[in-house]
Amino acid sequence: MTTSLADVASSGATLRAFLHGLPGVDRVGADQRAAMLSTRSIKTTAKARAIDLAISMVDLTTLEGADTPGKVRAMCAKALRPGEDAPQVAAVCVYPDLVAVAAEAVAGSGVKVASVATAFPSGRSSLEVKVADTALAVAAGADEIDMVIDRGAFLSGDLMKVHDEIVAVKAACGAAHLKVILETGELASYDNVRRASWLAMLAGADFIKTSTGKVSPAATLPVTLIMLEAVRDFRERTGRQVGVKPAGGIRTTKDAIKHLVLVNETCGDDWLSPDWFRLGASSLLNDLLMQRQKLATGRYAGPDYFTLD
Asked: How far apart are CA 246 and CA 280, in angstroms?
């Protein structure tokens, strides 16, 4: 059953009433469920499929001040052909000024170009700058924009400011998808993670994302669980499906598989696709490739067998 929520954001008062009326998160219960699901074992054949699925969900990322066009081209080459017979990754993620380089490198491949915009990672800039940053990235060839919310506004209760900025950036995206980064490590409580998730979706987010990767803690299993519950409940309420992207701290194949189990047990098969679930990572891919080779040959490749991202 679908229900319109069009009037929820008609004023700050109605938006606050709705978000604070959401069911509270049982912190102990969320921690325990995430811990329980993280112990699930996967058999060899299923593990091989899970590794390939995880590779196909990776947003291969470089977000350093020392990034160069050459580094981005090398990363894109790896995104297109991570390993022998391995699937392509979902996307490459770069700063806005390197979008054109990435777009040229992956043109026609199906690999998306994502770009962080809106004064990443702080989110502290004027709306005009955030919109311009987004528009420039899209014009340069970005398929996806990863924006970061103003956590100061959220935590001080200025929910309409956060909502309206997401709406404005979404409009600037045009046909590009919008991932809204909540920076959950700064939100102080699980209840705030749930509220921020719903706020982003009400404002038009195509994906909700845990973190910039620049703040600790970044993606944790309980936080990802809460966000998955939010997108599941949002679709049940509105009929619209929204994706989830945990990012930061996901470094091993074991970490990735724990997240896939969490998706399957919380939202079901509908979200087990790069269209609806992504893994934001810079170092995860090499471990997935090492584990993939181990399953295929019985031997681990050395860490220096794979390029560093």
From this structure: 6
